[in-house]
Amino acid sequence: MSSCATGTGPAERGARRQGPRPPGGRKWPRRSRPSPDVRGKLRSVSHDLVCWKCGTSVAHLSLPLRRLDECSKCRAELHVCRMCVDYDTRVAKHCREPTAEEVSNKTQANFCDHFKPRAGAYTAPNTAEVDKVKSELEKLFGKK
Fold this sequence. Notes:
Number of helices: 3
Low-confidence stretches: 34-44
Radius of gyration: 28 Å
Largest sheet: none
Oligomer: single chain
Shape: elongated
Helix content: 10-25%
Order of helices and strands: HHH
Mean pLDDT: 76
Distance between the termini: 104 Å
Strand content: under 5%
Number of strands: 0
């Protein structure tokens, strides 16, 4: 008769099969898990992402960014083409990913599977040039 038929198999005897132990007979160390923060969520991985529209840090958000994540200051959506590493105005469809579907509005949240957030997404406006043009217009038309 087999051990299963007699009821003396490993499960019935309470024995557990264990793998090889590390040298010295010690137990293997447990894998460490990230500790939860106060709200019970997992702590976010630190990153240096900023909003593509206003430049405010979005380090409080965890990665990967969710589709509807927004900037806390200007409320701009963050899962947008303008914030992606593949966004490039010099190529067709403004995307370097050849298999990505075309997104018409690059500043609205989308469902692109190729989205990877870019750290340097914010480009400050050239205020010196704007001030120069404003002063020339004031000279031409006078101040209001």
